[in-house]
Design a protein that fits this description.
Blueprint: E1 3-10, E2 21-27, E3 30-35, E4 43-46, E5 51-54, E6 56-61, H1 74-83, E7 86-91, H2 102-111, E8 118-121, H3 137-143, E9 147-148, H4 158-169, E10 174-177, H5 182-185, E11 190-191, H6 194-199, E12 203-204, H7 206-223, E13 227-229, H8 235-247, E14 251-256, H9 283-294, E15 300-302, H10 330-336, H11 341-356, E16 371-381, E17 400-410, E18 413-415
Parallel strand pairs: 1-4, 1-5, 6-7, 7-8, 9-10, 10-13, 11-12, 13-14, 14-15
Antiparallel strand pairs: 1-2, 2-3, 5-16, 16-17, 17-18
Helix pairs in contact: 2-3, 4-7, 7-8, 8-9
Length: 416
């Protein structure tokens, strides 16, 4: 289909039209013309006063397929992604079976062919995500896995993580670290601090995350390897990574959108919808995370989309599962955190693709059209009716949000 976007403000640091207001003509999936005023036989979309940028890319997305399709399948998950402005998603291997061989990688790639949203399966570091033996990393890489992680299970064995970093280095793959020392975190459910004391619950100290960040930074330095930390949540973690970057260690990291706006005070009502991992931290941690985004220490924002059936969340806080569905709200939460639109595009569109080694979408003539149109001032209500996920475990359903993606276009397909 042909599409003509009128009077949009272009936000793309890789484009010569960055920060300019222009019309964009898309024909057969390619941007054929960008100019001040274009007339063409195409579907019109009035974007006056709105922004156009490369589509968002999520580095931490959980979709139930394989095996947990009642939580989310590829169809519902990619529709939710498109609704939130994501034209690409990296799938965590938290499935049954986990993505620990080329068979699962190839299945997911074949199932997602022809989709508006580009899907990139991440393979496991260890077989069955058990943290004992390395998985078939090279086979998965050859089949299309761009990076490796045990998902929501941290790699406790330092020797295994060292071997994974060395092995991945041989074929220029990336290892993700979910930083948590389970021996210190124990079975606690919330952040350790004043709120956990008020709630009468055992807390997870920030140290549990920070020790693992420090360990894996040492391993990356020792092995001269790249490493990516996903969903960091504490002020000290930001400091450690900032210092590592100064030293020249090849490290990148991301933060979940909800960790930019929520603190552990949200748990005072024992609402299990706010139960996430890593846990919600303090206002000081939130401020440090935002500063880390602003100064470049934190490279990307992720949705950490984690769907669950109602029976896993509408229960006592202690036994509820961790996670929030976040694909449709990530952009609004980044705005709520006070981040400017240009920085959000950098953290949601540009950097995630660079981290994963994927060609960055560029708004330029002759380039494939992979774009979104968004309005930073639009107010909307997230409801059960417009929730595109199979699951509804979000504290934002029923709330008014500001900032909305109005159009998503990729692979000659449109969502609006």
């Amino acid at each position: 289909m042909n599409l003509l976007i009128k009077s949009a403000t272009i936000l793309d640091p890789g484009s010569s039209f960055h920060q300019q207001v222009a019309d964009i003509l898309i024909e057969n999936g390619v941007i054929t013309k960008i100019a001040e005023d274009i007339e063409a036989d195409a579907e019109l979309f009035d974007a006056e006063g709105k922004y156009v940028s490369p589509g968002f890319f999520d580095l931490n997305c959980n979709i139930g397929e394989l095996g947990l399709e009642t939580k989310e399948d590829l169809r519902s998950g990619t529709v939710a992604a498109a609704a939130g402005g994501f034209t690409g998603i990296a799938l965590m291997p938290n499935t049954q079976p986990p993505v620990h061989s080329k068979s699962e990688v190839e299945y997911l790639l074949n199932r997602s062919k022809g989709n508006l949203v580009d899907v990139y399966p991440l393979g496991t570091i260890s077989q069955k995500r058990e943290g004992k033996d390395l998985a078939e990393m090279y086979d998965m890489y050859q089949s299309g896995a761009k990076a490796f992680t045990d998902g929501s299970r941290p790699v406790q064995d330092a020797g295994l993580m060292e071997r994974a970093l060395l092995y991945a280095q041989g074929f220029d793959a990336l290892v993700f670290s979910y930083p948590e020392d389970t021996a210190i975190a124990g079975k606690a459910k919330v952040n350790e601090g004043e709120i956990s004391t008020l709630l009468g619950m055992k807390g997870i100290p920030s140290l549990a995350e920070e020790l693992m960040v420090a360990r894996d930074l040492y391993l990356a330095e020792y092995t001269v390897s790249r490493i990516h930390f996903t969903t960091i949540s504490t002020a000290r973690s930001v400091e450690l990574i900032r210092e590592a970057k100064r030293k020249g260690i090849e490290v990148t990291c991301d933060v979940a959108a909800h960790h930019l706006v929520l603190t552990d005070e949200a748990l005072l009502g024992f609402d299990s919808l706010y139960k996430v991992k890593p846990p919600l931290r303090t206002a000081d941690d939130v401020a440090a995370l935002i500063k880390g985004l602003e100064d470049g220490t934190i490279d990307a924002i992720v949705s950490q989309h984690t769907p669950h059936e109602i029976e896993f969340k509408d229960v006592e806080f202690e036994v509820a599962e961790y996670g929030i569905v976040g694909l449709q709200t990530a952009f609004s939460l980044a705005l709520k955190a006070g981040l400017p639109a240009e920085l959000i595009v950098e953290k949601l569109s540009i950097n995630p693709r660079e981290i994963l080694g994927i060609e960055t979408a560029v708004i330029a003539e002759g380039e494939k059209a992979n774009i979104i149109v968004f309005d930073t001032d639009a107010e909307w209500e997230y409801t059960a009716a417009n929730n595109q996920s199979k699951s509804a475990n979000s504290p934002y359903i029923g709330q008014q949000l500001k900032g909305k993606v109005l159009l998503t276009y990729n692979n000659q397909q449109i969502f609006k």
